[in-house]
Amino acid sequence: MRAAEIADQLTTVLVTEEEIREKLDELARRVESDYDGKELLLVGVLKGAVMVMADFARALNRPLEMDWMAVSSYGAGTKSSGVVQIRKDLDTDLTGKHVLIVEDIIDSGLTLSWLLENFASRGAASIEILALLRKPEAAKVHIDSKYVGFDIPTEFVVGYGLDYNERYRNLRDVAVLAPHVYS
Ligand code: XMP
Ligand code: MG
């Protein structure tokens, strides 16, 4: 689905499909060199990171393992609750693994700070974060994210995996949801 097809529900397209592809390629080259000779485990955070994971993993020209974690920090609305719940834990033992958490977006940072703390006790050799998007002005806690695609304004965005009430995930671009849709 392209942004033009639902233009009445969006205000601005912030990042296009093409820009995402170029950025993920660029990040993939960095990750290939940073993790040269190391065992790499990508951990995708469901469900928002599904698209980033699919495209980023295929941009990487190297062996890797993939696992998924499902947590919830948002209800049906557009504000972070700060309360994180594990809905699906990893299947993989992190001992000795170089873990790269793949996220769609860092908003308040609360979800990732909780995840980092949770992973820290599982014996990983290293833990880093790759996030396609980051809202710098919304940060409530500082998150050291080594690989960030795009810094965006503090607005609710949808598309490329990001949803509002489970809709818009299949939008190819990342766009600002028009306030009339959720108010
Ligand atoms: P925090 O605030 O903990 O939030 O960094 C992280 C999670 O919240 C979701 N999130 C969004 N989802 N549009 C969305 O569709 C947004 O603008 C947005 N901001 C945060 C997302 O699941 C992220 O992993
Ligand atoms: Mg998410």
From TrEMBL:
<keyword id="KW-0808">Transferase</keyword>
<keyword id="KW-0328">Glycosyltransferase</keyword>
<protein>
    <recommendedName>
        <fullName>Hypoxanthine phosphoribosyltransferase</fullName>
        <ecNumber>2.4.2.8</ecNumber>
    </recommendedName>
</protein>
<keyword id="KW-0660">Purine salvage</keyword>
<comment type="pathway">
    <text>Purine metabolism; GMP biosynthesis via salvage pathway; GMP from guanine: step 1/1.</text>
</comment>
<feature type="domain" description="Phosphoribosyltransferase">
    <location>
        <begin position="19"/>
        <end position="164"/>
    </location>
</feature>
<dbReference type="InterPro" id="IPR050408">
    <property type="entry name" value="HGPRT"/>
</dbReference>
<comment type="similarity">
    <text>Belongs to the purine/pyrimidine phosphoribosyltransferase family.</text>
</comment>
<dbReference type="InterPro" id="IPR000836">
    <property type="entry name" value="PRTase_dom"/>
</dbReference>
<keyword id="KW-0460">Magnesium</keyword>
<keyword id="KW-0963">Cytoplasm</keyword>
<dbReference type="InterPro" id="IPR029057">
    <property type="entry name" value="PRTase-like"/>
</dbReference>
<keyword id="KW-0547">Nucleotide-binding</keyword>
<keyword id="KW-0479">Metal-binding</keyword>
<dbReference type="InterPro" id="IPR005904">
    <property type="entry name" value="Hxn_phspho_trans"/>
</dbReference>
<dbReference type="GO" id="GO:0016757">
    <property type="term" value="F:glycosyltransferase activity"/>
</dbReference>
<comment type="pathway">
    <text>Purine metabolism; IMP biosynthesis via salvage pathway; IMP from hypoxanthine: step 1/1.</text>
</comment>
<dbReference type="Pfam" id="PF00156">
    <property type="entry name" value="Pribosyltran"/>
</dbReference>
